[in-house]
């Protein structure tokens, strides 16, 4: 028993090795609390891991599959656009959809990221964030400015940010066009904003999305021709994700628009109505003339009558016809196409005008490889389609098999087109 009472505890041994004083009975509580702290640490980690499990019922498996399909199609189109801009093959594939919180994402990716803020203006209500690792953004900037991407700058300066911002602008514009096609409605976005942040210390994403929890994170694998093999993330609020799923499943049923075709017929039927009212106007004119005539004697039987009566007799012999008015409905301009077949093979120059700007001679002389010229049109705004230098239509820029194209959204009538081509 004496041996057991004289044993030195582990805390006392640690205190002797550290050169400290021997702990007393009053100070035993402090080491005890310190030894209990590590036991709580795994519980905290488990709590952060289990916090993702509490979001399992936010989205169903069908909704996650739908979001994955939306991301797969839209990012596939964006990859084609980025391939054209970089001059290298780009693949963005294998979307993985999860519901999480921003704190969990920050713990998982504590590194610098380039985030692209995108706000939907038409078709979808909400914001969207695209996150790319800073080192991948540096390679994209180097390729955009004419480099080979093998030795990019470690720091992203203002010029590199502008170059990456332009590529992201084109990508998100293509994504909006793809969403318009999938949802069967117009989708417009505001010009994207690019920021470089550290996920480990800043929470810019929550500020952009409006402090919403939980959030939907869709991860994609991005490969750029042997230069990049990484992942990018699309982060959006749950409300926006559910709206996208609803638009995908119900969008095709919301657009039966037969009204414009039925609207024109009613005006011609209503136009002839004023004619009878106008025809009734002459009779009142005869009444005042009859009242203003001086009193006369009754005409003798079998005669022509007195002074006033011949006027009445002549008036009765004047033929009266209802007034005819030309209907006020618009008639389509008739284009004489009798000999149009003779000129069908004549080539015309079709140009698409993205925008214009004015530069001084000094600014023109300062242009070099990688310089960016800002135009007077906003991203996503319809472009003008001209034929032989004359306006024909407006449309949206699309990408078809690695080539740019234009989807016509507004076009002049055939008569107006023929008049402008003369």
UniProtKB/TrEMBL annotation:
Q: Where is this region: Disordered?
A: 1-54, 246-294
Q: Which InterPro entries match?
A: CheC, CheC-like_sf, FliN, FliN-like_C, FliN/MopA/SpaO, FliN_T3SS_HrcQb, SpoA-like_sf
Q: Which organism is it from?
A: Selenomonas ruminantium
Q: Which residues form the Flagellar motor switch protein FliN-like C-terminal domain?
A: 343-412
Name of the protein this chain belongs to: Flagellar motor switch protein FliN/FliY
Q: Where is the composition biased (Pro residues)?
A: 259-286
GO terms for cellular component: bacterial-type flagellum basal body; plasma membrane
Gene3D superfamilies linked to this entry = CheC-like, SpoA-like
List the PANTHER family: FLAGELLAR MOTOR SWITCH PROTEIN FLIN, PTHR43484
Membrane topology, from the record: Peripheral membrane protein
């Amino acid at each position: 028993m004496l041996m057991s009472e004289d044993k030195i505890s582990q805390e006392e041994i640690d205190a002797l090795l550290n050169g400290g004083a021997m702990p007393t009975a009053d100070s035993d509580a402090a080491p005890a609390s310190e030894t209990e702290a590590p036991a709580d640490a795994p519980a905290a980690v488990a709590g952060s891991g289990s916090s993702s499990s509490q979001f399992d019922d936010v989205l169903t498996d069908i909704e996650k599959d739908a979001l994955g399909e939306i991301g797969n199609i839209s990012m596939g189109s964006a990859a084609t656009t980025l391939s054209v801009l970089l001059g290298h093959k780009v693949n963005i594939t294998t979307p993985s959809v999860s519901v999480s919180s921003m704190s969990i994402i920050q713990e998982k990716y504590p590194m610098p990221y380039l985030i692209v803020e995108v706000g939907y203006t038409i078709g979808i209500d909400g914001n969207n964030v695209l996150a790319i690792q800073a080192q991948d953004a540096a390679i994209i900037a180097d390729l955009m400015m004419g480099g080979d991407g093998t030795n990019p700058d470690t720091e992203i300066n203002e010029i590199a940010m502008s170059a990456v911002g332009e590529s992201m602008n084109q990508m998100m514009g293509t994504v909006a066009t793809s969403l318009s096609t999938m949802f069967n409605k117009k989708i417009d976005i505001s010009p994207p904003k690019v920021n470089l942040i550290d996920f480990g210390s800043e929470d810019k994403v929550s500020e952009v999305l409006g402090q919403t929890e939980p959030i939907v994170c869709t991860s994609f694998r991005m490969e750029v021709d042997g230069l990049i093999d990484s992942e990018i993330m699309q982060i959006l609020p749950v409300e926006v994700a559910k709206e996208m799923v609803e638009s995908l499943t119900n969008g095709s049923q919301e657009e039966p628009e037969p009204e414009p075709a039925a609207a024109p017929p009613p005006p011609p039927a209503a136009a002839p109505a004023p004619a009878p009212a106008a025809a009734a106007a002459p009779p009142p004119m005869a009444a005042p003339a009859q009242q203003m005539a001086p009193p006369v004697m009754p005409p003798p039987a079998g005669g022509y009558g007195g002074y006033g009566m011949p006027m009445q007799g002549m008036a009765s012999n004047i033929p009266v016809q209802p007034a005819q008015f030309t209907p006020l409905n618009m008639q389509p301009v008739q284009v004489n196409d009798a000999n149009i077949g003779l000129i069908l093979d004549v080539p015309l120059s079709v140009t698409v005008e993205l925008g214009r700007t004015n530069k001084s001679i000094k600014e023109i002389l300062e242009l070099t490889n990688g310089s960016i010229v800002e135009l007077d049109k906003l991203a996503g705004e319809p472009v003008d389609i001209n034929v032989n230098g004359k306006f024909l239509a407006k449309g949206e820029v699309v990408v078809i098999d690695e080539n740019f194209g234009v989807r016509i959204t507004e076009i002049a009538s055939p008569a107006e087109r023929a008049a402008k081509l003369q």
